[in-house]
Amino acid sequence: MNIKFTKMHGIGNDFVVIDAYSSVVSLSANQIRAIADRHFGIGCDQLLLVEKSTLPNVDFRYRIFNADGSEVEQCGNGARCFVRFVHDKHLTEKNEIRVETMRGIITLTLENNGQVTVNMGPPRFNPDQIPFIADAPAETYSLDVGGEEINISAVSMGNPHAVQIVANTGSAPVALQGPLIEAHPRFPEHVNAGFMQIIDDHHIRLRVFERGSGETLACGSGACAAVVAGIKLGLLNSPVNVSMRGGELNIVWNGNNSDVMMTGPAEPVFDGELDLSRIDTQTVATQTAVI
Ligand SMILES: N[C@@H](CCC[C@H](N)C(=O)O)C(=O)O
After folding, report:
1. What angle do CA 6, 8, 14 make, to 5 degrees?
2. For substrate, which residues are the binding ones (predicted)?
3. Could you report the predicted ipTM of this complex, rounded to two decimals?
């Protein structure tokens, strides 16, 4: 079976986007892993499926799969690429679209300057995916990571984030601590690990070791979670500019139960056609085991 795809990125967080709206596309976790593989496949941090929604007054369903094949609730950079994709492929002409995700309905707006604003909804501080947090959430929690105690803020933007403050993102132990935090036993559904450097109260630098994908050049939901954590700690004031290795995002949050708004670019890279029968799911599934 041949399927058309578009390779896109949101400040370097890259995606394979597939139109499963015009015709049904169903992919196994093994096929997604093989497509995402940077040596045996196309290569991407996440694969995005654009589907029809069955809900009233909702334009599309947006499904997100990490490079390891797992389906997840939220992807901020992907949401911006989603808007650009449905416009470029003439699936809608609306500038404001309502999209069904695993975390609920989100609203996405294509701005006149080509940037996209995503209403990421309100943050949550005692989400199901972070069960060690009691009913009265603290600002930070202590976590034993490989014998070292670190302080993290636990924030859900629909998907779970553990954010810590570091002196310098350039020298932060992302490769060392990232996998340990991601799979820490206190996060049974695993977690995205953020490393935030405060530049001033309206500007941070951020690196994120993403659940199911490893360190990416940018993470939209991670940027929102870090800004929320910084504001809750009294270190940041909205709006906040978030600099990541792939580029910049603007995040607005007015506190309490208000929605987090994220604005940034979304870029197509190329279109292609994939022959699924040539995707080598076996090699990708076993390559780690062989090593
Ligand atoms: N890159 C994304 C987040 C993708 C999902 C994440 N890895 C998870 O497992 O929750 C973003 O831009 O938000």
Report:
1. 125
2. 13, 46, 66, 76-77, 159, 192, 210-211, 220-221
3. 0.99
